[in-house]
Amino acid sequence: MDITKAKEVLDSFERERYAYFYAMSTIELDATTVAPPETQEGRSIALGILSKRMHELTSSDELWEAVNALCDNEKEAGEIYFRRAELLRRSLADSRVVPTDEYVAYSQLLSQASYVWHKAKLASDWASFEPIVEKLVETQKHFAELAHPGEDPFDVALDKYEEGTSREYYDAYFSELKETLIPLIAKVRAAEQPDDSWLHVPYPIEQQKKLSQILMDAFCLDRNHCAIGETEHPFTGGTSSKDVRITTHYYEDMPLASVYSVIHEGGHANYELHVDPAYDYTVLAGGCSMAVHESQSRFWENYVGRSREFTDWLWPRFRELFPEQTAGKTADDFYRCVNKAQPSLIRTEADELTYSMHVIIRYEIEKMLFAGEITVKQLPETWNRLYKEYLGIDVPNDRQGVLQDSHWSGGSFGYFPTYSLGTAYSAQILQTMKKDLDFSALVAADDMKPILDWLTERIYRHGHFIKPGDVVPSICGEPFSAKYYAEYLTDKFSKLYNL
Ligand SMILES: [Zn+2]
After folding, report:
1. Where in the chain is the domain with CATH 1.10.1370.30?
2. Coil, strand or helix: which one is 239?
């Protein structure tokens, strides 16, 4: 196929793929925000049809030929078409080997899995979810074997979510991190904890919503292109640099939960909103990988949002909205309570210090599961054993244990490690940023624009054009290292807890 024709085929495919992606994202957004509970049937039918058509599109021989023609003629294709083709070849190679009927059956399994998991979680009923997890793991292994015969299926899964990673890569990263985390968590456990009971009294939801608006302004989120909704499990959905949605969940007795969800999801949103608009509606739109995306949400949530400079900025605004609840408290109390570190059951509510330990537990469980060292049936007991071993806590039920996260119901095995890896990426990026910007002064003044511009120039605007493994080395001028994250945690929590 000649290059002009190959470009036409690619353009036409990407436009159509975008339309299906847009439709499916909108259905998912509706499902997770405002759709009534018993509306799953029609949605499942619609999603089944759309995903079948999407799979047919991606399986076309003409497209495969076009992608290969562009990949094999880098110079003639030009760098943008070449990168688009390269990325598509990576994902198409995986999906083309799956027969359409198996793909549709898998999509339906996912839809059913999500529904069953929600109910199972509410009822803390692992047994009802267990057979679905069996099927999901079997299918993942089968698909991995089809696309990458002979390779380890868990390595395939890890590489799918973060290109270039493997068990070897994460084993090295996590073992280095554990050397810092385990003794540091033990010291913090033995130290005196701040009393945060005043942050667990009723905080009216209407006032919390006003705070969300203040935070959206504080982090430069443009309402013309970014809206906020409510959901059970906060997430960000973006369809282009002009349309991104964030979500949060309000708990009356936990105002900080929504505060940090909004900042976290706002970080994801700012990334997507600042991708070069020329990449819209192509595979180059959006972030360059799961870990790099998470590096940005966690950068804004933790390194900015939980810093002393930012909590000092937020404190008078927080007091004004909640004068009774905060009576007699100081900015110092607020900072210490925001950063209270204590082993807990739920990953998404974990503090900065113990967070990666939740990820390590999931990584080790998935690794054992895919290696056949444990069965699906043994997931709850393995989960509970590792929470006791690493965080010293007893898991009272499966709802707060093995059933807490939605990832497995979405077939996302190998996804969790990207959360921790991204956090470590951004710790290293922060050190470089501080050489260029007076980071503390900017955060203290809520002058986020220079920080946003710095990140846009180096990461956001490039979308998926850049490779995830190149991000840290190109910004920092050295290979990725876990030491910056470990040093940051040691420094911050030693000061907070007078260790
Ligand atoms: Zn995130």
Report:
1. 167-496
2. strand
User: In whole angstroms, what is the distance from residue 326 CA to residue 317 CA?
Assistant: 11
Task: Map residue 47 onto helix, strand or coil.
Answer: helix
CATH class of 167-496: mainly alpha
Check whether domain 3-149 has CATH 1.20.58, yes or no: yes
Beta bridge partners of 230: 248
Residues recorded for the chain? 499
> What per-residue confidence (pLDDT) applies to 104?
82
pLDDT per residue as tens digits for the range 429-441: 999 999 999 999 9
Distance 215 CA to ligand 1 centre (A): 17
Q: How far does residue 76's CA lie from ligand 1's centre (Å)? A: 38
CB environment 326-347: b (16+ within 10 A), e (fewer): beeeebebbbbbbbbbebbbeb
Expressed in angstroms and rounded, the spacing between residue 277 Cα and the centre of ligand 1 is 22
Q: Is 492 helix (H, G, I), strand (E, B) or coil?
A: helix
| CA separation for the pair 416, 146 (Å, rounded) | 24
Ligand 1 centroid – CA 300 distance (Å): 11
Which pTM was predicted? 0.94
344 with 396: CB under 8 angstroms? no
H-type alpha helices, 253-348: 255-273, 290-298, 308-321, 331-338
Query: Mind telling me the catalytic residues?
Result: 265
Cα 88 to averaged position of ligand 1 atoms, centre (Å): 24
210 C-alpha to center of ligand 1: Å? 22
Residues with Cβ within 8 Å of 449's Cβ and at least 6 positions away in sequence, in order, are: 220
Q: How far is CA 408 from CA 362, 413, 475, in A?
A: 11, 6, 33
Displacement of CA 14 from its chain's centroid (Å)? 24
- In whole angstroms, give the CA distance from residue 86 to residue 75: 13
According to DSSP, the residues that pair with 237 across neighbouring strands are 245
With contact defined as beta carbons under 8 Å apart, do 154 and 105 qualify? no
- Please state, in angstroms and rounded to a whole number, the distance separating the CA atoms of residues 404 and 348: 9
- Per mean pLDDT, which range of 99-113, 147-161, 229-243, 253-267 is the poorest? 99-113
Distance CA 149, CA 146 (A): 6
Tokens coding 306? 């939980």
The CA distance from 292 to 299, in Å, is 10
CATH 1.20.58 domain range(s) in the chain: 3-149
